[in-house]
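Data deposition worksheet. Section B asks for the primary sequence of the deposited chain exactly as it was used as input, without tags or linkers unless they were present during the calculation. Section C holds the resulting structure in token form. Section D is free text for depositor observations; keep each observation to a single sentence. Incomplete worksheets are returned to the depositor.
Section A, Depositor: J.P.
Section B:
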Amino acid sequence: MPMRPASSFMRAFAFAVVTAFSLAVGTATVAAQPASPPAADGVKKVLRYAFEVAETSLDPVKIQDIYSRTLTPHIFESLLRYDPLARPIKVRPLTAEAMPTHSDDFRVWTVKLRPGIYFASDPAFKGQRRELVAEDYVYTFKRFADPANTSPVWTGLADERLVGLAEARQAALDSRQPFDYDRPVEGIKALDRYTLQVRLEKPRPRFLETFAAGDLFGAVAREVVEFYGDQIDAHPVGTGPFKLVQWRRSSLIVMERNPEFREMFYDAEPAADDAEGQALLARFKGRRLPMIDRVEVSIITEQQPRWLSFVNGEADFIERLGPEFFNVAMPGNKVAPNLAKKGIRAYQQLEPGSLYYLFNMEDAVVGGYGADKVALRRAIGLGLDVQAEIRLVRNGQAVVSQSPIIPYTSGYAPDFRSEFGEYSPARAKALLDVYGYLDRDGDGWRELPGGQPLVLRVASQPTQRDRQIAEVMKKSMDAIGLRVDFELAQWPENLKAARAGKLAIWGVGGSAAGSDGQGALARFDSKQIGGQNMARFKMPEFDALLERMRVIEDGPERDALFDRAKRLAAAHMPYKFRMSRLLTDMSYPELVGYRRPVFWQEWWQYVDIDASQRRAK
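Section C:
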């Protein structure tokens, strides 16, 4: 079958629209300063900051959350990477020697690895220097299919239809024997030491994004997994620029420069009219990566301590500034004078993600597909005052969502409007009345149509911000006569319970991992129940629509399918999409070269620490 170079699938339109919004509200990005001089002898360049939510694992096969997925791509490397400065986004080779080629029907993808890339030294290699080979990617993909790993990403990978991979998984399930990693799989194989080939059952025009998912599909060595067994998540060993040196779970993660990392130099392709990007390229081009020696990530779940750690100089950087501190940090959408005197800079961007409530479609109260159950979910959505949450909890730093599709991705239409973006207590009450959710005993609370008590069980977390969000929801539901009971647990526990179908309602967020808007629709895919589809939504029409979207190239037909998907999502409401946040990051002057990534999570290797600025501070 004839092969041709993989064509670009990036979309300038979505990025241009969202960037225009950010500029309209006053982007506070300040031009980066000149490249920092080398640190004095013996002084390490250390980046220090805090996550607001704890990591769940350092084993890519077991993770789904954005926090863990920020850590892993700095250790494990995928075949492709996202250009750090290109806007609109661009994919470039990482461990690949060149961009992949694909068959005319997008069913066969072939990529050659760059020779001479090595894993970091580890006892698992028994003193041998271990080169990265194509078979490592074969093994990495097979791990997601291994039932013993219970990977939350398996359902998504299964939808890519790698020939024979699902059958290999089923063989392990049927035999109740360990997954056979030595069993050849036609859909993922090494043609030679450095050539990987993927064969798909159906066309996948956007499979390129899978090759670029370094947070998930970075190469893992089989010897390491077998050496550490159940402790593998505490011993991540990859070919990347950093290696783990300390891990106190849910408290502190410390990574240091991988001293064996190959020669890699700063290079990027910012747009010609991107002044900031061009300045960064001129400043750093040719610098060996990574430019810093150490990264210390603390876990601080409460916003006030996290903010204070930054203000007090204990952190060089704060990402996703808590909206409760926005007026203090950014009055009038400009860096506060007291912070500006310290050289603190701010960076703003509409997030490539959304916040939403999921409704468990198998729950006895809010689940189901009957008209009365749909009416209840729609009433909850219509009665929820999202603007109040944006105003009171988010300090105005968000935009109301109108659909499941995430900003910056295909299918996102800024002018699209739906019931997701509507607030109407009157309509909510009318729906409840029509479908029999009435207050029969006069206590102020509506009962189920059969007269049984009606209580909305909403999962949440014991943080100040989550308490504020809960207050908005409770006030909104009180206004339409619905009683709410909040059940508190830590975020990782809620995530685990949601995947298992044990939560009725939970507020959570999702971020795009690539430019294809179909990724957000995985939440509606019945094959991804237990993974992305935490609402456990099942609808044959939606499944068929998604399958058609997967196999066709971008164009008018696919745009029409996006529109249909958005309308089905609003009509059945298994999720109530609330908002996309305007993210604000801030840094001290010692952090040089930062630019918030769009979809990808790895960025530590592209920044520098100016030790002289830290000493002055």
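Section D:
The two ends are 62 Å apart (CA to CA).
The domain at 31-314+588-616 is CATH 3.40.190.10 (D-Maltodextrin-Binding Protein; domain 2).
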